Structures are given as structure tokens and as C-alpha cells.
Q: What sequence folds into this?
């Protein structure tokens, strides 16, 4: 029998449930120091990782301690020597034009790394662009390193990430995205955002949200409407573009005046806003295809609004397998995919989830597609119920899912340099203490909500993004100071205080300079996913469909001013 580990049944509070309430279990490790092993069979494979979330020790400010990175790399060198005569696994990928090299002795991390990102040859074939010859970012991930703790480290100065004794892919992926994001913002003026994106009738909608507020439900749900294409599940890159007088676009990267560099990366947007009359100004940048272009300041048509164009990041999506709860039809492709930390379920869970599981199974057995219906009806009902339950019992069970197998090749963005112009930005939240459902956001409120983003369990995330490769404590201390000045009240004045307060961490300033530009480029709204509180709706599924209808109507009409509540939202849909 699988061993019931102490971590099983632990909720967000960190409190371990009594043994009789344990809902799921994982196979025990084959030996005490193992960091990854095979779980109970399901899908194409099922890897169990000892660490199933962020490592207890995580240091994103290695550069503040002289000599620390050198010591870490010495441990890496020792781990590489121990890997002989088998060489450690190495593979380069291209993430939005940035070449990243991973070196690891973890087969699980290596497999997921290969699946998740575009290889050098894939990037070149899809985009027609020549990738950089050498990596900009190095990633080292080694298990079995006896002289090191289970930990994660990041150096911005050296663009280096080091992981020891953990094989959980989610943290590795997020730290790599954060490191790439720092390079893109500071050197190219490109905005890296933790969000999901869908195109509908040639208009893009970007969902920015903390976990548990309906990001995946909203993005996948919009795919049920005509004219939609799936773009991104978890992460997007946004390039801000000015229209030139000849009709072309330029995404500025660097500004020079009389041959002297005056602004680079994220700094270019404010400089252009404040210096439109300067002569002898040259802008270096890229077009939407990523080709280098130049333009004179006089050639920019400032009568046209700045534009936001989103690009996808992942080749194959690393996502939560609990997607089946909201979209049962994803069960088939997920059950053909590689899985991470998919547990076995206990009788207590099956009993507690009987109605939910039965509803999912019923939808699977009555799908319109003949072959899929035949497939699910061929599985004995009790066995199918177990499979379904295993996919969502543990909140952080993951699948490496090729989204084209869900929606089809023609309904998915598969070229990482094919942009979609963003029309709407939707900040999602779930606050059952508020009756507000959908609000248009002026700049001050948009920025205030991003400065303090809260998950449903009140965990705070700056910019709804725990991935950012920054000094979290420094940023948090600054925001705490602003909050104290504002009496703890979130509102437009909160952003005003942020703007007026000196001593902003550079990383926070970078992030919110880019969000300031985003607000100029698209309609910004807040959606509170609480329609299940509407007593006129019969169940949660109807509430979800109503939310999707609100999103679609807002994208189609883009109202400048909007405030919908539980009492009046239905009138907006008529």
C-alpha cells in the first residue's frame, strides 16, 4: 500500500488533517534522499516529486552576498563531476528570443523542460529568426547534492539560477520566466505577465489573476464562443508599439539623442511621452515580427494610441490537471499527457466528491464526439471515476498538455512570434463580501489593485505575480509603508501615494511603468467571479456561463465606463 505522507491532506493553512480525513496519497520514495520517483500509473507517465511547491529556502538576492554565487557554482561543479561518466543532461531553449540553457541530473526536470519550451531549431523554423548563439541565462538543477540544502537561488547580475535537491518543475519554470522577464523589461521594454490570453474576433483579452479566481475557467470558457483562438494559459509577453506616420509599427527599445543614449528598455515610454518635441532623436526597436527597425521621433504618429501586442511563451502548457472540474472534455488529452504529482485517492475523497465526480463522468460519457464518447464508455464506471478524481484531488497536480489536442491546430496560436493585439485587460478576483461584478478601471484604481493583489485565501501577490525575479521583501516593505500611509484602505489614493513616495525599489518601478503603458493601450476592467451568489441562477455551471457572457460582451463593446453588480448585471447582457 502507498505510504500516507505527512504532507498529504495539508491545506493552504498548513494544518495537517487527522488521519481518518486524509483524502489522497502518494507512493513513498524508493530511498530517503530521493527527490523524484514514479507515482501510481496514470496518463503517459506520473512523476512524484519530494517537494511539491516552493522550496523552504529560496534566495532571489544572491548578488547581495559577495562570493555566494561562486560557492553555489562550486557545488554545481562538484555535482557535475559526480555525474560522470554519464554527462549531466543539457538542453537550450528559446523563450521569447532569449536563449536559456538548463544543466541537470534530473530526468523529470529534463523531460518537462524539453516538452515545455521551443528548442533552438523549433524557434528558428517557426519564426524564421536566427536564435542567439550563446545562452543569456543559465539554469543548474541538481539532486543528491549532500553538502547543500533543498533550495533555489537566483543571480540577476550573472543571469544564473541554481536549484539543489528539488525536482518540482513548477518552481523551476516560474523562476526561469522571472529571470527572462527581467532581461526583457530592462533591455527590450517588453512586459512579462502572469496571465492567460484568448483571441475573439481578432481582439485579444488578457486575464491577470491570482490562483483560485477563475483565470483558467474564464480563458477556456471563452473558447466556447464563435471566432475564438487560444493564445496562452499562464504567461504572456507584451510588446508596446507606436504607429508611425507611414502606417508601420515600432516597439521601442532604445532612444538616442545626438548620438547619446538617453533611455533603454522600460524607460523609453515615459521618455517619449515627456520629450516629443526634441529634435535629432532616433528610436531603435523592433517590429511585431521581431525584426530590428529604426525611426526618427518626428515619424511617430502620436495622434494614434499606443498598442499592446501579446505573444505566447510555452510550446506545451504546464497546467493544473484539475481543469477537468470545469472542462470535463479536457480529461482525454490530459489522460494522454505526462503528469506530475497525481495522487491516488482514498475512499473518503470519493465519498465527499461523489456528486462532482458523477457529474464529470456523465459529461464524458455523453460527449457529442463519437470516438471520445466510445472511449469513455469503454472504461468501467468505477475506474473512470477514480481517474477523474485523481486529476483534481491534489490542487497542485500538473499535466504537460498540448493544447492543440483540446481545441485543434487552427484554434491555437502555435508560432511564438505571432501576436494578438490586446483590446481588454481583465483583473480577476473572487470576493464574496462585495456585490460588484464588473467594473471599468481608471488608471489609479487599476494600478492600486495590482499593487496589492490578493488570492481568495488573502495571500498577497504584487502584480498578481509570484514569479517575478525580484527582492520580494524589499518590495513588500515599500508597499507596507504606502499602505500604512493610506490607513490600510485600497483605492485610487493608494496609487497616488505610491507615485509620490521616494525610495521605490527599481524592480517595482519597472513593473508599474509597464502597467501604466498597458492602461493606455487597452480597456481595463475588474471582474469579480461571484455569480454563484446570484440566487436566480440554478447552479455553479450556469454562473460560469454567465461570467463568460459578460466577458464576451465587454470585449465586443468595450464600454469606457461600467459598473455592474449582482442586481443589475443581467441587464447588460440583454
A:
Amino acid at each position: 500500500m502507498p505510504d500516507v505522507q505527512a504532507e498529504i491532506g495539508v491545506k493552504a493553512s498548513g494544518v495537517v488533517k487527522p488521519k481518518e480525513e486524509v483524502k489522497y496519497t502518494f507512493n513513498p520514495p524508493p530511498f530517503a534522499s530521493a527527490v523524484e520517483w514514479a507515482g501510481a500509473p496514470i496518463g503517459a507517465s506520473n512523476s512524484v516529486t519530494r517537494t511539491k511547491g516552493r522550496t523552504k529556502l529560496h534566495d532571489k538576492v544572491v548578488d547581495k552576498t559577495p562570493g555566494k554565487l561562486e560557492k553555489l557554482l562550486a557545488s554545481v561543479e562538484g555535482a557535475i563531476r559526480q555525474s560522470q561518466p554519464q554527462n549531466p543532461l543539457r538542453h537550450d531553449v528559446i523563450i521569447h528570443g532569449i536563449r536559456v540553457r538548463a544543466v541537470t541530473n534530473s530526468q523529470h526536470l529534463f523531460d518537462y523542460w524539453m516538452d515545455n519550451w521551443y528548442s533552438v531549431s523549433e524557434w528558428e523554423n517557426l519564426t524564421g529568426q536566427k536564435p542567439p548563439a550563446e545562452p543569456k541565462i543559465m539554469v543548474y538543477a541538481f539532486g543528491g547534492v549532500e553538502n547543500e540544502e533543498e533550495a533555489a537561488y537566483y543571480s540577476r547580475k550573472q543571469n544564473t539560477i541554481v536549484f539543489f535537491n528539488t525536482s518540482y518543475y513548477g518552481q523551476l519554470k516560474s523562476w526561469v520566466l522571472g529571470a527572462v522577464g527581467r532581461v526583457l523589461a530592462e533591455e527590450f521594454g517588453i512586459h512579462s505577465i502572469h496571465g492567460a490570453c484568448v483571441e475573439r474576433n481578432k481582439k485579444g483579452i488578457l486575464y491577470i489573476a491570482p490562483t483560485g479566481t477563475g483565470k483558467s475557467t474564464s480563458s477556456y470558457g471563452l473558447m466556447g464562443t464563435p471566432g475564438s483562438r487560444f493564445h496562452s494559459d499562464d504567461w504572456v509577453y507584451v510588446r508596446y508599439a507606436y504607429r508611425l506616420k507611414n502606417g508601420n509599427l515600432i516597439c521601442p527599445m532604445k532612444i538616442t539623442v545626438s548620438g547619446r543614449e538617453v533611455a533603454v528598455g522600460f524607460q523609453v515610454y515615459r521618455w517619449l511621452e515627456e520629450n516629443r518635441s526634441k529634435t535629432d532623436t532616433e528610436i531603435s526597436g523592433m517590429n511585431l515580427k521581431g525584426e530590428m527597425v529604426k525611426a526618427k521621433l518626428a515619424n511617430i504618429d502620436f495622434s494614434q494610441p499606443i498598442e499592446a501586442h501579446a505573444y505566447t511563451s510555452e510550446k506545451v502548457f504546464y497546467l493544473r490537471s484539475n481543469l477537468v472540474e470545469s472542462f470535463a472534455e479536457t480529461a482525454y488529452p490530459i489522460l494522454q499527457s505526462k503528469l506530475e504529482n497525481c495522487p491516488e485517492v482514498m475512499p473518503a475523497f470519493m465519498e465527499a466528491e461523489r456528486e462532482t465526480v458523477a457529474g464529470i463522468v456523465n459529461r464524458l460519457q455523453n460527449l457529442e464526439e463519437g470516438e471520445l464518447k466510445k472511449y469513455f464508455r469503454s472504461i468501467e464506471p468505477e475506474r473512470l471515476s477514480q481517474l477523474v478524481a485523481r486529476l483534481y484531488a491534489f490542487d497542485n497536480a500538473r499535466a504537460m498538455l498540448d493544447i492543440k489536442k483540446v481545441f485543434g491546430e487552427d484554434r491555437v496560436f502555435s508560432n511564438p512570434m505571432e501576436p494578438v493585439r490586446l483590446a481588454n485587460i481583465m483583473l480577476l478576483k473572487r470576493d464574496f463580501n462585495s456585490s460588484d461584478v464588473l467594473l471599468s478601471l481608471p488608471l489609479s484604481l487599476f494600478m492600486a489593485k495590482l499593487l496589492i493583489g490578493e488570492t481568495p485565501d488573502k495571500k498577497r501577490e504584487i502584480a498578481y505575480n509570484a514569479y517575478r525575479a525580484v527582492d520580494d521583501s524589499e518590495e513588500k516593505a515599500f508597499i507596507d509603508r504606502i499602505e500604512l500611509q493610506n490607513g490600510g484602505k485600497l483605492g485610487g489614493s493608494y496609487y497616488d501615494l505610491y507615485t509620490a513616495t521616494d525610495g521605490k525599489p527599481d524592480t517595482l518601478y519597472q513593473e508599474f511603468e509597464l502597467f501604466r503603458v498597458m492602461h493606455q493601450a487597452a480597456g481595463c476592467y475588474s471582474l469579480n467571479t461571484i455569480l454563484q451568489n446570484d440566487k436566480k441562477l440554478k447552479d455553479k455551471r450556469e454562473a460560469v456561463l454567465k461570467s463568460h457572457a459578460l466577458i464576451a460582451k465587454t470585449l465586443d463593446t468595450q464600454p469606457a465606463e461600467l459598473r455592474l453588480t449582482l442586481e443589475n448585471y443581467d441587464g447588460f447582457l440583454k
Observations:
- The radius of gyration is 24 Å.
- Residues 57-188 form a domain with the Phosphoenolpyruvate Carboxykinase; domain 1 fold (CATH 3.40.449.10).
